[in-house]
Amino acid sequence: MSRVRLTLVLYPFGAGAMAVNLFFASLIASWIGWPVLTPVQSVFGGAVLGIPATWAFARHIKRLMEKADA
Length: 70
What we know:
about 0% strand; about 70 residues; 2 helices; mainly alpha; single chain
C-alpha cells in the first residue's frame, strides 16, 4: 500500500481526532479567557489540521510496515 493511499484511508480518523482535540483545547484555553470554539469551527479546524497529522502518522505506519517486512 502506498503512503498516499494509506494517508487517504486514515484521513477521516485523523481529522476527527484533531477536531476533538481542538475543541477540548479551546475548552481548556477558556480558563485564561480565550473563546470556546463551536463544534462546527472545530470540525473545520480538524479538517485542516488533520492533513499534516495524518500524513505524519501514515509515514510512521509505513515505516513500521517496511520494518516488519524486512
